[in-house]
Amino acid sequence: MADRPLTLLDKSDVLGGLFAVWDDLDTLLNGVAETQWRAPSALAGWDVKAVVSHIVGTESFLSGVPAPEPDVDVKALDHVRNDIGALNECWVRHLRGEPGVQVLQRFRDVTAARRQVLQNMSEDEWNAQSFTPAGPDSYGRFMRIRVFDCWMHEQDIRVGLRRPPADEELDGPAARLSLDEIAGSMGFVVGKLGKAPEGSRVLLDLTGPLARSVRVSVDGRARVVDDFGDAEPTATIRVDALQFTRLAGGRPLCPARSQDVELQGDRDVAARIVENLNFVI
């Protein structure tokens, strides 16, 4: 099978989103009391400090810093499900004894160093094939995945701090790029995981401040399309866009937004897709 073409993304656009979410995290965490750093996040087994420690660890890894040796067999922990999870846990355990303000400073230091590296990267380096969590693709795609990961973790932290995002806080490049990343995987979700049959036309009608429509057509294989021509969707899933990202990430829904997931058309297919929306490793 031929290699997939590389995903070529505008460097300034993606870096704008990545730097914006880092800034938003800094603002969100600035002045947080130590008790709040220990508040449970939306992720099982991790408090707010653990989520930030994970981000610090990933950016440190991308800076060439090896993971610290863990004090226990991290693969034996209930919430660790794969090798990436084990690597994440090494940093979480390494930093858990540090005060939250020091972890925040580590976050500031490592993201400042990464900003410099990324800004200095040439277009050829940006578009070159790289390892990514989604398989071989461009380094730019990897950085869009970093936007998605950091933005999702911002929402996880907001659960722990009980500070759900206001509509205006969702209006930014990081949210848009995160939804772009999720939408690009919907062919796989609808066809492979949701097993939508041949001829299906699935409309994901996302509402709220991040509103958009994502259409997937199953014609030989499931793929995201711009439109269905003159045809109507065979199945429609209508849900708040932020809640859609929570479902895609296997997270609990945001309590401050609508919990409704409306299914129309072929409800069996729509329900099966919703049940399999969690595709994040």
UniProtKB/TrEMBL annotation:
Protein name per Swiss-Prot or TrEMBL: Maleylpyruvate isomerase family mycothiol-dependent enzyme
Keywords attached to this entry: Isomerase, Pyruvate
Residue span, Mycothiol-dependent maleylpyruvate isomerase metal-binding domain: 20-158
Recorded superkingdom: Bacteria
Gene3D superfamilies reported for this sequence: dinb family like domain (1.20.120.450)
Lineage of producing organism: Bacteria, Bacillati, Actinomycetota, Actinomycetes, Mycobacteriales
An MF annotation (GO) of this entry: metal ion binding
Annotated MDMPI C-terminal domain residues: 177-272
Keyword Repeat assigned: no
Keyword Repeat listed: no
InterPro entries reported in the protein's UniProt record: DinB/YfiT-like, Maleyloyr_isom, MDMPI_C-term_domain, MDMPI_metal-binding
